[in-house]
Amino acid sequence: MVEIIIAVSIMLVVSIATLSVVQKGLKISGQSLHSTQAAFLLEEGGEIVRILRDGAWSNLSGLSLSTNYYPTFSGSTWTLSQTPNQVDSFTRTVTFSRVARDVSTGDIVSSGGVTDDGTLLVNVVVSWQEGEQNLSKNLSFYISNIFQ
Amino acid sequence: MIKKVKKLNRGYSLVEMIFYISLFAILSLVIFNLMMTMTKSFKQISIKREITQSGEIMERISREIRGAKKINAVADVNGDLKLDSTDDAGASKSIEFLLQNNNLQIIEGQVTPLAVGDNFQGGKIAYILKAGDPGYVADGVTRGFISALSNQSAGGSWWGSTGACANTNINGADGTALGTGLQNTIDMANAGCLNIIQKVYGVNINGYSDWYIPSKDELHKLFINLGITSKLWSSSEISANNAYIEGITYGLPTSDTFQKSNGVPDVHAIRNFTNNSSIYLNSPSIKVMSIHFDQINTTKGQAIKVTLTVRSKHDTSNRDYIYYNTIVLRGDY
Fold first, then answer.
1. Is residue B254 part of a domain?
2. Which of B13, B44, B54, B324 would best serve as a mutation to test chain A binding (most A beta carbons within 10 A)?
3. What is the mean pLDDT of residues B244-272?
4. What is the pLDDT of residues B34-80, one digit of tens each?
5. Residue B14: its pLDDT value, please?
6. Cβ proximity of B312 and B286 under 8 Å
7. Burial degree of B290 (CB within 10 A; 0-12, 13-18, 19+)
C-alpha cells in the first residue's frame, strides 16, 4: 500500500510539473496570437498616418506634438482623436515629434539644428494586457510632405 | 507459532486501510484533474497556434492590396473585393477575394472578363460554362472550350476505310453532352479509330497539344457561337455504322446522323480552357467567419480597411478572433 501511495505521489509531482510547463506554453501561445494581431494594428497605424498625409499635409502639421492621438475610423476614412479608444483588447496611440536638420548637411539631428516643417517623426504604439503583464509593440518612422 | 504471530503483525488495521484508501483516492482524483486540465490546455494551445497561423490570410490580403493599381469593385459586408493589379511581368491581372461557406478564396485572372469569340490560348473561345452545365463549378474560375481557328481536315471518314474500328460499335465514345468530347476522343483512339483523330488528338495546333473532337452538344455550341458553316464530325458515336455530325440545313445549325464511312464531313478541334486560378487562403482547420472591406479615397489614391474574423474548427466555445489592417494601394503609376 505504501508503495502505491509513493508511486501515486511521484506521478502527482510529475503531473504538476508537466502542467506548469503546459500552462506556460498556453501563455506563450496566447502572447504569440496577440503579438500577431498587434503587428497588423501597428502596420495599420503607419498606413493611417500615410492616408492622412495623402489627404493633406495640414492633417498632420496641425496636430500637437508629443500628444497621444487615437486613430478612429469614421466609416469612410481615418481621423486622429485625442479621446482614448480601444481596438478589442488593444490600445493604439500615435504621437508626433519635431524633426530637426543640420543646417549645412541637411541630415536629421537629435539635438540642435533647424526644424523641418515638412517632416515629422511618427511613433505608433500598440499595447495590451497579458495577464498581469503589460506588453507593447512600437513603430517609429519619418513622414514627409512629399506632395507639397 | 512465532511465525504465525509475525504474519498477523504485517496486516493493516481498519483505520489504516481507510486512511490509505482515502489518500490514494484523493491523489488519484488530483492526478485525473491535472490530466484533464492538461488535455484542455493542449487543445487551447493548438487552437491558438491555428489562429496565429491564420494571420497569414491577412498577410496575403495586405500584400495583394498593397501591390494593386486600383479598386475595381468592393462590397463592404462579407464581400467580394476585386482589384486591378499586375503580374510579375507587368501584365494586367485581376485579384478577387471571395468569401463562400466560411472559406476565403483568392481568384487571379484577367481584368476584362473573357467572352465567346475572344482569341485565347491557340484559338477562339467557343463556349464558357455556366451554372447547370456539366463541369461548371461556382468558384469564380472561368472554364469552357476553345475552337481551333480552322478545320483540321477537309473531309475524312469517322473510322477510316479500314481499321480496327470499322463497322464496330466501339467501347465508349457515346457521350453527347458538354464535357464528353475529350473522353469520346480518347475512346476513339483506344478503339483504333484513328482516321480523323490523328488530325487532332495529340497534335500541336497553335502551340497547344490537348485538342479533341467535340461531342454532339459541344459541336452545336461551335455552330451557334462561332457561325461555322461547314459540315463537321462529332466524336459522339450512335451505332456500329453511324455517328453524329452537324451542318447547316435551311440556314440553321442542325445535328444529323451520318454514316461513319462517309468522307464528306470535316474535322474541327476544340480544347478546354481554365482562365483564372483560385486557391483558398484559409487552412482546413480555420473558418473565415466574415471579412469586411471599407474603401478609403484620398486625393492621392485609395486604401482599404480590412476586418477579418476567423474561428478554429476545433474550438467548441466558438470564439472568434479578429485581425485588422488598413493598406494603401500602390496606385496606377
1. yes
2. B324
3. 91
4. 889 888 888 989 999 999 999 999 999 999 999 999 998 887 556 68
5. 85
6. yes
7. middle
| Least confident among A2-11, B137-146, B234-243 | A2-11
| pLDDT number for residue B161 | 60
A27 touches chain B (CB under 8 A): no
In the predicted structure, residue A63 carries a pLDDT above the cut 50: yes
C-alpha angle with apex B275: B273 to B279, nearest 5 degrees? 120
> Is B24 inside a domain boundary?
no
Q: In this structure, is residue B296 part of a structural domain?
A: no
| DSSP codes of every residue in B117-171 | T-EETTEEEEEE--TTSTT--SSS--EEEEE-SS-SBSS--SS-SSSTTTT---S
A29 pLDDT more than 60: yes
Q: How far is CA B129 from CA A68, A116, B141, B235, in A?
A: 56, 61, 10, 20
Cβ distance of B298 and A19 shorter than 8 Å: no
pLDDT at B333 over 80: no
**Beta pairing class for B119-120 and B286-298:** unpaired
Taking an 8 Å cut-off on Cβ atoms, the answer to whether B303 and A37 are in contact is: no
pLDDT higher than threshold 50 for residue A52: yes
How buried is B116 (Cβ within 10 angstroms: 0-12 exposed, 13-18 middle, 19+ buried)?
A: middle
**Whole-angstrom Cα distance, residue B88 to residue B94?**
13
Q: Predicted confidence band at B313 (pLDDT cuts at 50, 70, 90)?
A: very high
Q: Does A5 touch chain B (CB under 8 A)?
A: yes
pTM attached to this predicted model? 0.72
Q: Which residues pair with B298 in a beta bridge?
A: B301
Instruction: List the grid coordinates of B132.
Output: 447547370
| Residues from chain A contacting residue B324 (CB–CB below 8 Å) | 37, 40-41, 44, 87
Angle CA(A34)–CA(A38)–CA(A39) in degrees, nearest 5? 120
In a domain, B170, yes or no: yes
Between chains, do B62 and A43 touch, taking CB under 8 Å as contact? yes
DSSP B114: P
Q: What pLDDT, in 10s, does the model give residues B167-205? A: 889 999 999 999 999 999 999 999 888 888 889 999 999
Q: Count how many domains chain B has.
A: 1
> What range does the domain containing B261 cover?
119-274
